[in-house]
Design brief:
Layout (H helix, E strand, L loop, with lengths): L1 H12 L7 H12 L2 H14 L5 H28 L15 H20 L4 H21 L6 H17 L7 H13 L5 H22 L2
Helix pairs in contact: 2-8, 3-4, 3-7, 4-5, 5-6, 6-7, 6-9, 7-8, 7-9, 8-9
């Protein structure tokens, strides 16, 4: 009996086996390039593009971040604490409709705020893209778990590449990285990350062509 207890104690004291390196890298990439993390530099860079008044541009960037990212993220965090969502990524497909509806509604309020206060055209375009993308992703998610990580990052780097030119093109490698991370972590299939990125790249190009820079 004493030997059995000693074996149990030693097994409990043994530290957990570390995750393989590629899993740790994938998890780090997935966290760093999560939709809310990507939105901060993206919104600021879009706001500053040819801004005649930097202070005013940053003010409007804060408004956009409030409605596009901060508000929806608070909603998800509260949902996780209440047990409505399994995690902040809302990994379960059936749980995603509520966050989509809240996020889209919040973005629409942000869009109206910018429109009626004559906010920067580029930020209005960004919110239009976010709203259309949110509706498309929500409809697709009803049947298929398309990747929001790949979608948001692809959308951001495409818009920044259109605004700032070829200097931004290397950042498309980050889309490949985050897509790889989502597949390695078994959150999505290859098809789901390709679809998420592809649909949003096309969406950004079409919206910017229609509205201009």
């Amino acid at each position: 009996m004493s030997n059995h207890l000693a074996l149990n104690a030693s097994s409990q004291a043994r530290p957990p086996h570390p995750k393989p390196l590629h899993i740790r890298i994938a998890r780090l990439a997935s966290n760093i390039f999560s939709p809310i993390a990507v939105s901060l530099p993206s919104v600021i860079l879009v706001a500053l593009y040819h801004a005649p008044n930097v202070a005013l541009a940053l003010f409007y960037a804060c408004i956009v971040l409030l409605f596009l990212s901060i508000g929806p993220m608070i909603y998800i965090i509260i949902g996780v604490r209440m047990g409505k969502f399994t995690d902040t990524d809302v990994s379960v497909r059936s749980q995603r409709v509520g966050p989509f509806l809240f996020g889209n509604s919040s973005s629409i309020v942000g869009l109206l705020t910018l429109f009626f206060t004559h906010g920067p055209k580029n930020l209005i375009t960004l919110l239009l893209i976010a709203i259309i993308s949110g509706i498309l992703m929500m409809l697709i998610t009803l049947w298929w778990k398309i990747s929001l990580h790949a979608a948001s990052l692809a959308s951001s780097v495409t818009l920044l590449a259109i605004l700032y030119g070829t200097i931004v093109l290397p950042t498309f490698l980050l889309v490949v990285l985050v897509s790889w991370s989502r597949v390695v972590l078994r959150r999505h299939t290859v098809g789901q990350v390709i679809a998420g990125a592809g649909v949003n790249i096309l969406l950004v190009v079409v919206v910017v062509q229609l509205r201009g820079i």
